[in-house]
């Protein structure tokens, strides 16, 4: 008699995760090279109920070589912001390095474009400088949800593209809701800024 096996969604996900972990373990044990050329890492976000060091430990233990600095359990929730001091950023960068990781992307939250374009530029340049301290090649931007600020926000980005390029930092925007929620909106933003140092960062968790 033929017996059918109809696993539940939970069983399917559990089995898939176990197989994925087994496969990754074999690759790590064998020291398999990354033939695809992709740099695969993990942001601190999944651990943002904990200190960022807990996140870095977890990322390193999982076998990743690259980390993305985003959110963590701290006063500002976003780990590195326009108000972070260079010394504080340097300390975080050292913690990353001590775990054998490299920072591949940094999300620094907002910059004060609501105050003025000049203030926005100063804030964005500060975030770019933070990337330099972290030896990080990418600054991830979340855009603005305020329709009144869209024009000025991306004027600031456009004005800072050359500065970032000179520092070895590329800037990118991701789908994040609001005025940059869809692929069409993001494409329009990229065209509006019109600089090769400003590109799109794919975020599968925020595709509408």
Please outline what is shown here.
This protein has helices at 9-30, 52-61, 86-98, 117-133, 150-166, 183-193, and strands at 41-43, 66-69, 102-107, 138-141, 170-173, 198-200. The protein has 208 residues and is an alpha/beta fold. β2, α3 and β3 form a beta-alpha-beta unit.
Q: Can you tell me about this structure?
A:
The chain has a single domain (38-206), classed as Alpha-Beta Barrel (TIM Barrel), CATH 3.20.20.150. The protein is of the alpha/beta class and 208 residues long. It starts with 8 loop residues before the first helix and ends in an 8-residue tail after the last strand. 43% of the residues lie in helices and 12% in strands.
Task: Note the main attributes of this structure.
disordered N terminus; TIM Barrel; 6-stranded parallel beta sheet; 6 helices; 208 residues; 43% helix; alpha/beta
Task: List strands and helices in order, with pairings.
Layout: H1 9-30, E1 41-43, H2 52-61, E2 66-69, H3 86-98, E3 102-107, H4 117-133, E4 138-141, H5 150-166, E5 170-173, H6 183-193, E6 198-200
Parallel strand pairs: 1-2, 2-3, 3-4, 4-5, 5-6
The top-level CATH class is Alpha Beta
- The quaternary organization reads as single chain
Gyration radius, in Å: 20 Å
Structural class: alpha/beta
The N- and C-terminal alpha carbons lie at a distance of: 46 Å
| Largest β sheet strand count, sense and barrel closure | 6 strands, parallel
Number of domains: 1
What's the number of helices?
6
Helix content: 40-55%
Order of helices and strands: HEHEHEHEHEHE
Low-confidence stretches: 1-5, 12-31
The average pLDDT value, as a whole number, equals 87
Task: Give the CATH superfamily.
Answer: Divalent-metal-dependent TIM barrel enzymes
Order of strands in the sheet with the most strands?
1-2-3-4-5-6
CATH architecture: Alpha-Beta Barrel
| General form | globular
In percent terms, what proportion of residues is strand? 5-15%
Number of strands: 6
Fill in the CATH topology.
Answer: TIM Barrel
């Amino acid at each position: 008699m033929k017996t059918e096996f109809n696993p539940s969604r939970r069983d399917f996900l559990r089995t898939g995760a176990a197989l994925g972990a087994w496969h990754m373990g074999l690759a790590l044990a064998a020291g398999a090279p990354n033939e695809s050329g992709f740099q695969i890492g993990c942001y601190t976000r999944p651990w943002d109920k904990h200190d960022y060091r807990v996140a870095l430990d977890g990322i390193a233990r999982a076998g990743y070589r690259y980390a993305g600095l985003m959110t963590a359990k701290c006063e500002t929730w976003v780990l590195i912001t326009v108000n972070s001091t260079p010394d504080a950023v340097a300390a975080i960068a050292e913690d990353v390095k001590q775990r054998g990781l490299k920072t591949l992307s940094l999300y620094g939250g907002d910059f004060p474009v609501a105050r003025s374009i000049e203030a926005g530029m100063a804030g964005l340049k500060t975030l770019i400088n933070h990337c330099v301290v972290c030896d990080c090649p990418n600054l991830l931007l979340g855009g603005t949800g305020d329709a009144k600020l869209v024009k000025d926000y991306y004027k600031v980005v456009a004005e800072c593209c050359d500065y970032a390029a000179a520092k070895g930092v590329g800037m990118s925007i991701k789908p994040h809701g609001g005025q940059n929620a869809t692929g069409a909106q993001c494409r329009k933003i990229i065209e509006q800024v019109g600089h090769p140092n400003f590109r799109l960062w794919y975020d599968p968790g925020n595709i509408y």
